[in-house]
Amino acid sequence: MFSIDPEARLLEANEKWFDVTDHPRDPPFEERSWMQPFEKSSQHLMEAGWDKLTVSKLPWTAELQLKKSWYDSNRGEMVESWMLAAAAPEFTNGELKSVMGSLTDISFQKRSERDADTRAKLSEQLLAITLEAKENEKNFKRFSDLAPGGLIIMDPLGNIDYANSQ
């Protein structure tokens, strides 16, 4: 959980927020310092989110990548940290008082999404290779049927796997 003032300075956050983001705990906080723990690729989403919260006066959610990653000993790899940020503006007499929000760790969901994409790409590659192999087999059979001599393919035990008509 976190709270930000109208000038985009972090007012307060709970211990879990500091633990997850590695944001310095000691005030005073610089303007927009709450954005610093996130990767540059997430900065444009945060800027757009700030405009939505403060100008359009609407709630905002986004999937953001933290700079901080962690080591997954089960898989033997570094894992990106992803957060689902959700925030809403608070107004008093029509004036922005603060922005309250929370972060939810979605690292496992993002990794599952990446793994599913990888499996889908591998399946597409396997299909393309299978189709190519079938085409090659069809071309080989056509070639062997036109060959003037006999042609056989045997397995290691001497059984015939293929023989042309000659």
What is the secondary structure topology, with strand pairs?
Layout: E1 2-4, E2 10-13, H1 15-21, H2 40-54, E3 60-72, E4 77-92, E5 95-105, H3 107-146, E6 152-154, E7 160-163
Antiparallel strand pairs: 1-2, 1-5, 3-4, 4-5, 6-7
Give the gist of this structure.
The protein is 37% helix and 33% strand. The chain has helices spanning 15-21, 40-54, 107-146, and strands spanning 2-4, 10-13, 60-72, 77-92, 95-105, 152-154, 160-163.
Describe this structure in words.
- The protein is an alpha+beta fold and 166 residues long.
- The chain folds into 2 domains: 2-105, PAS domain (Beta-Lactamase); 117-163, no CATH class.
- The chain contains 3 helices and 7 strands.
Overall shape: elongated
The DSSP helix count reads 3
Question: Could you say what the CATH topology of the largest domain is called?
Answer: Beta-Lactamase
- The CATH first-level class of the largest domain comes to Alpha Beta
CATH-defined superfamily of the largest domain: PAS domain
Strand content: 25-35%
Q: Kindly report the spatial arrangement of strands forming the biggest sheet.
A: 2-1-5-4-3
Alpha-carbon distance between the two ends? 79 Å
What's the domain count?
2
Q: From the alpha-carbon coordinates, what is the Rg to the nearest angstrom?
A: 29 Å
Mean pLDDT: 92
Q: What's the architecture of the largest domain, going by CATH?
A: 2-Layer Sandwich
Poorly predicted tracts of residues: none
SS class = alpha+beta
Helix content, binned percent: 25-40%
Number of strands: 7
